[in-house]
Amino acid sequence: RCVAASASSSPAVTAAATEVPGTMKAWAYDAYGDASVLKLDEAAVVPAIGEDQVLVRVVAAALNPVDAKRRAGKFQATDSPLPTVPGYDVAGVVVKVGGQVKGLREGDEVYGMISEKPLEGPKQSGSLAEYTAVEEKLLARKPKGIDFAQAAGLPLAILTANEGLEKAGMAAGKSVLVLGGAGGVGSLAIQLAKQVYGASKVAATASTKKIELLKSLGADVAIDYTKENFEDLLDKYDVVFDAVGQGDKAVKVVKEGGSVVVLTGAVTPPGFRFVVTSNGSTLEKLNPYLESGKVKPLVDPQGPFPFSKVVEAFSYLETGRATGKVVISPI
Ligand code: NDP
Description:
Elements: H1 2-8, H2 11-15, E1 23-28, E2 39-45, E3 53-63, H3 65-71, E4 89-97, E5 109-113, E6 131-135, E7 139-141, H4 148-152, H5 155-167, E8 175-179, H6 184-195, E9 201-206, H7 211-216, E10 221-224, E11 237-242, H8 247-250, E12 254-262, E13 272-273, H9 280-291, H10 310-317, E14 326-328
Parallel strand pairs: 8-9, 8-11, 9-10, 11-12, 12-13
Antiparallel strand pairs: 1-2, 3-4, 3-6, 3-14, 4-5, 5-7
The protein binds NADPH dihydro-nicotinamide-adenine-dinucleotide phosphate (NDP).
The site of NADPH dihydro-nicotinamide-adenine-dinucleotide phosphate has 28 residues, from helix 3, helix 5, helix 6 and strand 9.
């Protein structure tokens, strides 16, 4: 009946299929600090879109340590002005497209990391809101068979895992040690190393309760850091991927000529650090691995947290004990 009605109505009426309100619910802070600075704004302004952007109706978002560090004021020098709606990771539905947008249309289900450089002028209006504006080039189609909550947990973490492995020269036949294998980034670094890069051997560290998880993600060797120091074991690796901040120890277990990539903390040569760049086409390239189930999203079983529980979700993330991704859904 609806189809018949719209077919007979004027083109203008048909085109206005998606009503976008002027205001929305969003979590925001107007001063740096701990999780208590976050307030739910019931009438935040829905962001305007640029020519190269789309407006996404957010269905799910995910938290990353960078959201907490940014909120704490660690990146003030290069941050966007306050007030801030945090959140880099999004999965949702396109409801409006800018004039220069070529590939995306209203109704498309997408996911991505909304700021190209997370520390250099990140978006003031992030994904912990009902709507967020994103450049088309930062988004990818949501993989088939992956729900919005799972998809939201992927972008920042999987792009970091991929860029880190790539920059470290990971390739078929090489061995890798992932420090922090049970976290958002580490759980994907293990899987990408094995499934995408063809690692000959993947080792990873976590605490006792997460050792079986490391193996289920594809780790050949799971090191319980509460019982053994990885740097005291005899094994050496072509690549060490440090998602914990143990760069000083990481360099002790790399083979001569190998690479040590660190995400956080001090850098000891030959280790190097980088900051992830968002890119929708990299997500598109990884989509087949997600659609085939070779690479699986890992959503922390404490969640998904409903939109009303964002403060609790941040507090949980900031324990540093999350397993996979802390996801907010539904929004
Ligand atoms: P998570 O919050 O998901 O990491 C939590 C995990 O870390 C837990 O599962 C925990 O396991 C594990 N962990 C904590 N301490 C240790 C340890 N000593 N040894 C092994 N595992 C440990 O964080 P992310 O994976 O999202 O990010 C990791 C770090 O990388 C953060 O500091 C983040 O800011 C940074 N980062 C940097 C990026 C960049 O571009 N440079 C991009 C993305 C992240 P357990 O409970 O067993 O201890």
